[in-house]
From TrEMBL, chain A:
Coiled coil: none annotated. It comes from Rhizobium subbaraonis. Part of the Tol-Pal system, which plays a role in outer membrane invagination during cell division and is important for maintaining outer membrane integrity. This is Peptidoglycan-associated lipoprotein. The gene is pal. PANTHER family: LIPOPROTEIN YIAD-RELATED (PTHR30329:SF21), STATOR ELEMENT OF FLAGELLAR MOTOR COMPLEX (PTHR30329). CDD domains: OmpA_C-like (cd07185). Its main location: membrane. GO terms for biological process: cell division. Residues 57-173 form the OmpA-like domain. Pfam families: OmpA. The Tol-Pal system is composed of five core proteins: the inner membrane proteins TolA, TolQ and TolR, the periplasmic protein TolB and the outer membrane protein Pal. They form a network linking the inner and outer membranes and the peptidoglycan layer. HAMAP family: Pal.
Automatic annotation (TrEMBL), chain B:
It comes from the Bacteria. It comes from Rhizobium subbaraonis. Residues 1-25 form the signal peptide. Residues 28-130 form the TolB N-terminal domain. This is Tol-Pal system protein TolB. The gene is tolB. The keyword Transmembrane helix does not apply.
Amino acid sequence: MSRTEVPAAGRMQTLARNPAIIALFMGLALAGCANKKNMPNSAGELGLNNATPGSPQDFTVNVGDRIFFDTDSTSIRADAAATLDKQAQWLQKYPNYAITIEGHADERGTREYNLALGARRAASTKQYLSSRGIPASRMKTISYGKEKPVAVCDDISCWSQNRRAVTVLGGAGM
Amino acid sequence: MLRRTFLHSAAGLTGLAATVSPAMALVEININKGNVEPLPIAVTDFVAGGDLGQRITDVIAADLKRSGLFAPVNKQAFIEKISNPDQPPRFEDWKVINAQALVTGRVSQEGDGRLRAEFRLWDTFAGQQMTGQQFYTQPENWRRVAHIIADAIYERITGEKGYFDTRVVYVAESGPKNARKRQLAIMDQDGANARALTNSNEIVLTPRFSPSRQEITYMSFEGQQPRVYLLQLETGQREVVGNFPGMTFAPRFSPDGQRVIMSLQQDGNANIYTMDLRSRTTTRLTSTAAIDTGPSYSPDGARIVFESDRGGRQQLYVMGADGSGQNRISFGDGSYSTPVWSPRGDLIAFTKQSGGKFSIGVMKPDGSGERILTTGFHNEGPTWAPNGRVLMFFRQPAGAGGPQLFSIDLTGYNEQQIPTAGYASDPAWSPLLE
């Protein structure tokens, strides 16, 4: 079999990581979000809310970096839309961040389908944020399928935590 | 590592009666019967200077036993001790312990350092030799010689090609479920000679053999860019397959080894593409606003089975190799995925999700004759032995544990765990080695 060989080493170099996205530390003394007590997916209620506004910690703690999906669904639920609305507001306030949306599936599916399902969840999340004014050029997506669960157990409540899209400041993706 | 070995075989042995004509053989197994009564077979230690004769016969006996078609007789019951394999055995001594077939042999070191192994298979009730072969190889290939002899015995008695001289690529997994480390690995089909092919913290998935057995295609998240790769087993050289504007996944080779077929993800949709490995040209085969993935060629290369959720849930579809005539073939309850066309062409194996369970099953290429082989919490990803008689798959337990590999007969009987050092998933069976 004759074929054009791409030297492995050289090829790997061209695969080098995306340009590193430098998360700018915004040292602005802005007040935190006003109604953080009611926010889902937020660690603010746990008393962790000493994050500097505009910091990645602020995003994770006070905005909420992830949304959840129903089984085998890629629709943005009402609670997820509320989180994404806050993400959009925050990202518009801090326009120097690019983001990567990671799509994930639970373990109750086959591997290859779940890779595509995670990608579809990331895409629907991206589309929603786009509809809220975040330019597509700031957003990348990546799917991990069922390969990166956050919760490990064997019941429905657990699987529901793994069916998620996580907005990562910076990050990788395509 | 996958160094080609040169095994010379001779059909008969000098100084002995030639093989008996098939019509006279009493010993045979009809493997289409389902749950067959295993054939009692005595595998005697090959005559040798050291313990190599015993090690070889242990591997032969283990292969035959694991097939579910043979029941090796306990060596303790043997009456005759074979000391000269050139002489016919005392058939009465073997009949009386109900060994219907008998294997004798010898291993020796040649002057040039090569290993010489010979065996004879006897029909004890007919009192005749069924076959006899000899092999020369390097001493480190002794396990392969054992597998080749087991294949010869299997083929002579069942009339089907064996599958013991084969390897399996898989994903070796370790660590907790939420921080799992994955490496590509390769082993003999019985779990021996396992070794890692990659060592990085990137996620690697779904390795599959080329028909030449010299390379595998797989998916890696290297550089956070999930894509399909090729890996040359001999050199370890890797390369990306194609330059696609999105995640590529679910790769397999075409039967002629000239193309890789895979899915390309763009936004919410996955479609099926091929890339010609020589010209590097890509061809799009499906074009739907759906997830089309899991493509697998028929052995003649004329058709492709794949899974799609274009009708709502994952179902199996068959199309021509050019993407023409896409027809759904699965219509049972639940969803179907990971289709794999049998090397014999007669069946398609799949994963089925139904009622909260994951099953491995088979159906004919027209969708008829569905049979479920095993059902449980999570069984996934069948791969065919090259003779199309046995399937391997992985089984994931509920909770924090990890997956293990299992094999099962096409009949649904004889489920066996494949021993691996740690967790293992995504097995892919090689063609027969040469």
